[in-house]
Amino acid sequence: MSPGKENPHQAPAGFSAHSVRLAWMLSPAYLLVIAYASLQPLGGWRVPPEEILRYFVAPWPPFITLQDVAVNVAAYVPLGFMLSIGCGARYGAARGAIAATLAAALLSLAMESAQMFLPSRIASNVDLLANTLGALLGAMAAPLFAPTRILGGTLHAARHRLFVEGMTADAGLVIVVLWLVTQFHPTARLFASGAVRATFDLPAPFAHTPWLALSSEAVVVLFNLLGVGLMVFALMRDAARPVPAIGVLVGAALAVKLFNATTLVHAQAPLAWLTPGVLAGLIAGCALLWAAARLPRPAQLVAAAACIAVATAAVNLAPDNPYQNVPPRLLAREPGHFLSFSGIVRALSELWPLLAIGFLLFALAARRLRL
Fold first, then answer.
1. How many helices (H) and strands (E) does the chain have?
2. What is the DSSP letter of 236?
3. Stated pTM of the model
4. DSSP state of 205
5. Of 3, 16, 200, 355, which one has the greatest count of Cβ atoms within 10 A?
6. Cα 117–118–123 angle (5° rounding)?
7. Which pLDDT tens digit goes with each residue over 8-37?
8. Cis peptide before 143 (omega within 30 of 0)
9. How many other CB atoms are found less than 10 A from the CB of residue 351?
10. Domain map of the chain by residue range?
């Protein structure tokens, strides 16, 4: 359907009904992520001193940096975007954007007020303003992505040209995007999602050797790339060209990893993660994906789940690398916005295999991906 034609299943803001449902499903999940980021560490609650209660009218704090403001703005852009889609379906685009911004601002006010009870966190009116600005930007951007707009129409046409229809496919694409977000994990190897050994303080089952380190890196990258690639194949239409899509996906993941090392972590060796084992896994994974492009869709779903499970097991069995340096910013004594961001990405990286395998099994059982 062209952007200019009306769709009876479209909401008043121009989005389809299943897009609105997906936005309402993702908004509470993202709200929990924001709450976790705003209130960690979760221990040490106390009655705040009297001077903290006046944070709402406090002057500009000297310890706030431009990066802190940027992180707070960026953190609330997705929330404002998703709430604007949901509210816009009921109240219209303009009123929906206003309602989304006000709801996000109230959430930010609640989080900043709760931080007054945590000695390790600092309530800030600057954070409140930055969060509200981020929500406003996301809310204002949401109508531009409606199918009835030029930008939204182009993106929706590409989405429907390349991928199968339905909310299940939309959920799968969201999980693929979350896989890209996990590449912001500052201490993880490339594609090494699902590493929970450090979280549960478990020892490494094998001692470090150069050969074992190289082979474990190759296995992790190979099977994780196969799992994600096969998931993308299963979401694509039969007439679409899957190999270029995988090239774009891998290139985006490598770009995120490089951006994270150079801009956020400020690593002295920004390409230290690009080891011979990683290169071997990338080359082998791309070659096998090219061969698996024409597998039946059910086989792709099963193989993707199996590959992600193998990659998760491999990353937890791999030996610790004594030559891997912890980024200096992660050694800061006082929690900051970057540490909160790092904690969110780490939790997402640990949970991503469960989300992906659960989705793949659901898609296989429901068989809602239309051929």
1. 11, 0
2. B
3. 0.77
4. S
5. 16
6. 80
7. 445 555 787 878 888 898 898 888 878 877
8. no
9. 15
10. 17-158, 165-366
